[in-house]
From TrEMBL:
SUPFAM superfamilies reported for this sequence: S-adenosyl-L-methionine-dependent methyltransferases
Domain spans labelled Methyltransferase type: 94-195
EC number(s) given by UniProt: 2.1.1.-
A biological-process GO annotation: methylation
Enzyme category, top tier: transferase
Similarity section: Belongs to the methyltransferase superfamily. METL family.
Record's keyword terms, sorted: Methyltransferase, Transferase
Example GO molecular function: RNA methyltransferase activity
Protein role: S-adenosyl-L-methionine-dependent methyltransferase.
Gene3D superfamilies documented for this protein: Vaccinia Virus protein VP39 (3.40.50.150)
Record protein name field: tRNA N(3)-methylcytidine methyltransferase
């Protein structure tokens, strides 16, 4: 069992247990499978074409047991969800790629006035959210949507959302579709609205493992054993993506944590990126 063993302090005191200035990342060998048996005439990789099927299988198999509830969202970004005396209306949140609801249920418990739109392209995920004991139609509008291909404004009013959360979601999208996703989100955000993102960072131990197993699709993008895909972000890549879509960068940092497996006597490094972007 992996357990966190080292706690680092960085220059962001609010994020105890993580550090910003991560050491040199391991060298990643760049081998693309783009000419392999997985690619069809349209040059689209098999696991990208089948992404929705594999995520749906994932939720059929794991139900809501795979991810833990993400209570750190309130700690890290509480001010984006809470209402002040000056706010006339409750805050409106859109959680994209909501999965089984591990981000939204802790948030509605902590902020009872929050209104949440939540979407996922997996029908199983949407069913899991609707069947959660804390689900309330008055507070949560959950719907099926492939944000890389469907127009979000058909489900959510344009310029009506205060905050969008992307929690380990954008990494599941093929890199050539990420810009369309971000542009889609921009349409539903209010001016001065924010996107809060937490996701995998380049050099994470899971990336090193996938690399060794030769499961690369393209630079920093891989398929896992269960058929789902994952991208590993650098700050440069993520910043450029959001700047191209017309966002401002409020904050962007990489965090790492050394995890030790005493039984196997190995130590691995987990890396995450956390960022805030604002719509002008
Ligand atoms: C790692 S899970 C994160 C779940 C959730 N955000 C959480 O905090 O637990 C990634 C989610 O993104 C969803 N997803 C991937 N691509 C998507 C797309 N194009 N449109 C909508 N949802 C997508 C998957 O079905 C999956 O539920």
């Amino acid at each position: 069992m992996l357990s966190p063993s080292y706690f680092f302090t960085g220059s962001i005191p609010a994020v105890a247990g993580f550090r910003r200035n991560c050491p040199q990342i391991p060298t990643i060998r760049i081998v693309s499978l783009s000419s392999s048996k997985y690619v069809n005439d349209t040059n689209e990789h098999y696991f990208c074409r089948k992404s929705v099927n594999y995520w749906d299988k994932f939720y059929k198999r794991h139900k809501n047991k795979f991810f833990k509830n993400r209570h750190y969202l309130e700690k890290d970004w509480g001010n984006y969800f809470s209402v002040t005396d000056e706010d006339v209306n409750a805050k409106v949140l859109l959680e994209v790629g909501c999965g089984a609801g591990n981000s939204i249920f802790p948030l509605i418990a902590a902020y009872p006035k929050l209104f949440v739109h939540a979407c996922d392209f997996s029908p199983q995920a949407v069913t899991l959210v609707k069947s959660h004991s804390n689900f309330s139609e008055a507070q949560i509008n959950v719907f099926l949507c492939d944000v890389a291909n469907d127009d979000l404004t058909e489900k959510v009013l344009p310029s009506s959302v205060d905050v969008v959360t992307l929690i380990f979601m954008l990494s599941a999208v093929p890199p050539n579709k990420m810009l369309s996703v971000v542009q889609n989100l921009k349409e539903v955000l209010k001016p001065n609205g924010h996107i809060l993102l937490r996701d995998y960072a380049v050099g994470d131990s899971a990336q090193v493992k996938l690399e060794k197993k030769n499961q690369m699709i393209s630079d920093n993008f891989y398929f896992r054993g269960d058929g789902t895909c994952s991208f590993y972000f650098s700050e440069d890549f993520l910043s450029s993506l959001f700047i191209r879509a017309g966002f401002n960068i409020v904050d962007i940092n990489t965090y790492c944590r050394q995890m030790e497996n005493r039984f196997h006597n190995i130590s691995v490094q987990r890396r995450w990126i956390r960022a805030i972007f604002s719509k002008p």
